[in-house]
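Figure 2 data, in text form.
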Amino acid sequence: MSQRVVFLDTEFSADGKRLLDVGAIDSEGRILHEKDPAALLKFLKGADVAAGHNIVEFDAPMLAEKGAAIALALADTLFLSSLLFPKKPYHRLIKNDKIDGSELNNPVADAQKSRTVFDESLDAYARLDPELRRIYRDLLSDKRPFEGFFLVADPTEKKREASPFSRIRRFLGIEHEKEKLEKSDSADVPDLSTAERIRRFFHGLICEHAPVEDLVREYPVELAYALALISTDDRSSVTPAWVSCRMPAVEEVMSTLRSRPCKEGCSYCREKLDPKANLKRFFGFEGFRLYGGEPLQERAVRAAVAGESLLAIFPTGGGKSLTFQLPALMAGQTARGLTVVISPLQSLMKDQVDHLVAAGISEAVTINGQLDPVERAKAYELIVDGTASLLYIAPETLRSKTMRRALLTRHIERFVIDEAHCFSAWGQDFRVDYLFIADFIAALSKEKGGIPIPVSCFTATAKRKVIQDICDYFKEKLDLKLTIYATSAARTNLHYRVIETADEKEKYARLRELLESHDCPAIVYTSTVRDTYVLAKRLTEDGLFALAYNGKMNSPERARNQNDFISGAARIIVATNAFGMGVDKKDVGLVVHYSISASLENYVQEAGRGARDPDLEADCYVLFCEDDLEMHFQIINNSRLSLKEIKDIWRGVKELSRGRGAFTSSALEIARAAGLNDAALSDNQEIETKIRSALAALEDAGYIKREMNAPRVYATSIQVRTLMEGKDIIERSKDFPTDEMRTHAVRILGSLISASRTSQATQGEAETRVDYLSDRLGIPKSAVVSAISAMRMAGVLKDDNDMKAVVSGSSRKAQRVLAETLALEAYLIAAVNELKARAEAEGVEWAEDDDGTDEADWADWTEETQESQENQNQTKGQKQQKQQKQQGPRKRPLTLSLKELNMCAQEAGCTASVKAIRTIFHYWRIAGLLNGLANAGEQCVQIVPARRFEKLAASHEARKALCSWILQWLCDHAASPAAEGDEKKPAPGRASREAGSETDFSLVGLMKRYKSEQLLAGGTTLSDVRDALLFLSKTGVITLEGGFMVIYNAMTIKRLNLDNRSQYRKEDYRKLDAYYKQKIQQVHIIGRYVALLLRDYGEALQFVRDYFEMDYRIFVKRYFEDDDAILSQPVGKKLKERIYGGLSAVQRAIIDDKESQFIAVAAGPGSGKTRVLVHKIASLLLLEGVKREQLLVLTFSRAAATVFKQRLIELIGTAAHYAPIKTFHSFAFDLMGRLGNLDESAGAVAQATKMIAENMVEPSRISKSVVVIDEAQDMNAEDYALVKALIERNPDMRVIAVGDDDQNVYEFRGSDPANFRGFAQHHATRCYEMPENYRSAAPIVALANRFAADIRERMKHEPLRAANDIAGRIAVIDYRSKLLAQPIVEAIAREMKEAKEAQQAQEKTEADGSAEKKGSRKGARKNARTYAVLTHTNVEAQEVHAALIQAGIRASLVEGSREFALYNLLEVRAFLKAIDKRRGDSPVLKHEDITEACTETCRHYGKTRATRLVENLTALFLSISPTETVYYSDLVEFIRETRFEDLQRDAAAPVTVCTIHKAKGTEFDSVHVWLTPERMDDEARRRIFVAITRAREALTIHEAAPFTLFTSLLQGTKDKDLAGTQILSDDKAWERPEKIVLELTLRDVNLGFYKGKKALICSVRTGSDMMGPDKHGIFRVVVNDRTAGSRRTLFVAQLSRAGRKHLERLNAIGYGVHSVTAGAIVAWLDKDTGNEEAVLIPRLTLVRTNTNTGGAS
């Protein structure tokens, strides 16, 4: 070169303030290396041009700031390289926008590389067609990055700049005609403008009517880059990313020239942009579909090609996918554009990509969770390198910075939202990132210079409002107006039916009948994940092979099942709606909805999977049960994001931001900061959904802005096989400075190893996410990160890319398939090379630099090449120009017949099929071995081999060896994970393995093993291993599964509202609330559709049409006018009737009260307190939208909690199973993090309250929206303090307290009705009274009113009112004797005899047909009458029970705990041990585990009182537990909290005997009360009030002299209801019972006696006979000694001093020991030694020995 060019490079400090170094080299080879800018200026003297890489935008301006401005023409090699090397693989020294291999702190070396790029650019420029050189020069020679280059490349141009004012004129846009002519001297036609030159040179490659003049004037540089790309003959070459970012108008210029059809219809547009021609070319179809006779599909395609935004509503199976795929493929060909398809489901993405591949179209890729790491990396590569024209992603992927960077490298043609109705259906609370789509497009458009990106939306099911919502969304967010293309044409090849079923058994039977009668592919839809597995398993067991499919299934299994169904390997698939959209299997002949869909939209989508081929027909059945609708209401309520939850999450956001405007946190960290309940955090997927939904609501209300995700990967592989191996390394390593860090590291490693061995870890602590590791292991996140970093340094963790592989079938089969596939590939390589050689012999040239075919030629060779009429009319000059442009032989693709190839391959001995050949071609395309692959008619393809293809034959053998070795290695190592500490490795060379065995490996490790084992494999690279794995995967030999990653998934959140006092408000929630109401309405609407389908087929179809086409308000008015209110109810009609049915006005008012924050209900006895509480809880859960984790129901006994749970289950079914009903003590233990225990309950509530006050309780445990308190009158000061603490922590929390201060009988425990009264008076409480008594007869109610009148400070103002017409009776008997057991028993015996005679008479009357005589009492009950004897003391109860038994009357004695807990009973401990044996380490149990453990325990210990307790315990627990599984800890807590009396009631015994305290909450037909003299204070009055109000029909009060309380009360009464009361006296001297049973307690035995005798005591069976006590109080048993052949006496128990005194008192009144049995064996903790001992407690039967001791004393 004659000009002197100086190439320079500079190094500046990171802040740009200091010049660190300067390097330069000139064209004559002189070098400068200085730090002084003055030296550079001196070096530049005499130079013509200064050149460098990015000199224009970096070096020159930075030097100017340092006073060293460069006053020379510049040449920027960054700009030059992209212009002159526009085709893959671009310039060898340029990677992205940097010089490859740049050396840090060596500017001279970089300057030298710039010189190399400059020289090679000159050579490339010189090789260009002169006309193209002229175009570039005209466009760029006066542009600063190119000015110096053209001075060197075209030195004659410098002479034309003679005038010193020419640059000024050019800068101002002023140019003389003379100068224009001078510039055109080198052209063939000197008077052509630049625009005309472009049109002539690029004729046939751009639209003839494109506004080229405007582009020359406004975007000359961008136009030059676009023309450079157009001039390439490689379709996958794209505009460099840096060009797109700095000059985004390049993309718009490209679209203007190539992608927008002109109105005039030039030859280019007719050939390249005609939808019909391209439809034939890409898909082989002759024409578009018609909908109702209208060409809507073609119109929508033409609109997309024209760059319009649109919304298309076509029926399922109506060709929606093709409508966006065709414009995308066309844009990929013409503008190198990428169309991004937002798709809701992974199955849908996979299905569409697979269909395109099967059609020979390899330009589509997907990125989703089903991809293995190799496929994912390849997909990103295909996006960035321009191969992909269609990209399928989920909306959540838009938050990925990696995806954003990838899209910035491409020209984005448009965004397509498939299944666009999901905007409305999911966008609020399930897939909230749908609402991020427009924000993402706007941000992407802004980064690309503000050029609008069009949008296409497609759906089959969208009603008017949804359509309007979608249109409004894009208009508001992107200012895009969507043109609507909609058809009302319905599918006529689907036939709908409904079969009503009564229960699950009938439903399954009908399903099986349908599947057996339809011999075709079938889809069974169900609403829950669990049902997919259960039904698939059950059908398979019944001979109907079925697979499950759901969204929570791990990705590889989900993909396998989908493939098996699509391919026909499985006829039946049982799926949730995750399989409900877009999945295209044409021959599905049966669609069964085992559970009805949640909306009409979903149903139409799901039913639309049937008969996708319009020539086929399908039957669509709904197996309908009313409970299906209730299940959907439950799902809506459970998934509903409540106002309180969003408030809590906003509070958590404020806490995490800590005054910062923006922060990053994971979903779990936000959930924890928000204090979400553990129940809400039990499902990882639900956590993510809940938090993202709440953040979307906060963003919508203007509180925050959620930005891009900020994930961080800490490691991708584990380098140890076992935990023991890793532990050894950790303990030896110096990278762990403390023992605590070592301990943390070992625990973390255990979790990582566990997670790496399971596709979806569901148990224990298996986890790989840093935040979840921290949460589950209880280790601070910072400590987790530190431990992971240390493990990386120690070599335990690395970045070697761990993943899993599953060999398809047995190893022998897989190896055979691989050998056959490799042989077929070898044949195809030879065949293609032979055809290629023939083509070259015929004069067809293949490019030397990895090129494909010219765009024009590609279309020319799609069919037989013929010149068009337009070409025949070309001028001579035009033909000459085209020939000059082509310069030599034409380049063309190879057209191959797949059928011929298949036949020839088979004749050559290959195992071949058309599908297998397509698969290999597809692999070649994505592996970069082909530059083009397209269909060319039926069973024909066109391929364009890349430069690499010539080397494929040579590299095939190397890949064959590598693939074979990998497969063998995978087969050899496909064993179960090694047991902990097992170092034995599987032996290599095994011939066969079980199909489907997983193998863990790492990419790096695999490469290292191969290179170490194969002598000739030294040159194998990681890329080779990836390609081999990709080949094995794509050809179906193996399945690759997700990689292992230690990751932290953080979200970036920017606070817009910085006021920490701000609260999320009810008005902010209004939009979300309306959304949930809409979902509820959709369930009612689908229910109405089913009802219509049962009644009138035509009316049901019209209902569907009206739903989608009518204004929604008009639709509702037409079909729901009579019961419009039902649409707003989140329950079905029948369940609502159950909740409200039979309630009184005041009960209904309580249920309907949804506004009062505090409610106090003063409920009299028999007023339906339990009923109203149960119905209110049902209303809270189902009607008021209270989440179960936000509800807390507090009771005072496990028995009450159990009754509530049982009643709730009866009322609302399975929705009640997880309702949190707890005792005060169990809730307190929860807060303290301990298992509940009655023995340790004292002080537990106070301790928990203190912990709340001191912020020692996790917020999640006390975050409640509603607290319900049963028996509120029994609250003591500690209980009430706990309630107040909860109110203080939850200011908006509602509290509903129900009780009766007249029934407070636990004052001896500290309960005080003043607390209940205080709640009613001090919290602006809404008070209700329930005076109606539905239990007792009017006389009993009247007596209760009269008696209660003397109780002071009562809450109720109204007297009790009998709400039934039972004819009751009252008797009061005064006794001279104080021994009342015998007379009470005789009174009961007489009453039972009279009742029996009356029952027999009634039965006889009914048998005689006499209807007049209805019995002696109105409303007499036909079922067995119940009796109760209520006493003050346990001793009295024992005496009555003994007398009843002696009289032959079956009775149940309800006793206390005898000072030991049920949990400590030997048989209960054995029961738990039997459960442990079954559950292993699992925290969950199945019902069958519990029942089997119970059976085993009872079989071992026999039928005893203790084993009956175990049986009752089992039955009671299972009655309130979920139907499938329960947590072991819940069972233990249930046992610890259950009292003996809760299990002792004998349902078959007509008489119950207990103290008054234990009678609370019970009722009986006839009640006998034993009253003894006591001081009559309010406490005593309340106790007696409880006793008399237990009676339904008959009340008998037995008063021992001189106590005549009721005799005095009733004397002289004028109450008409008490007029029939009998007042009797009994002067008889009654004796004590003949026999009594003495139940001893722990206080009655000498505990020291049992120390060290655990085995001996446990050898005794409960109920076995004993002897004693002797004078020392010792009891003994006699056993057979089989070894000695004799009998042995064992000393097994001893009375304590208290026990002996107790027995002496009984002896003193005439009782002696008659017999002794082993009453109970219990565990006792010896606090002195810390040992647990076994204690045998005897049960004594005593008889009266002295008849004179039973007088009236």
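Caption note: Residues 688 and 1718 are 57 Å apart (CA to CA).
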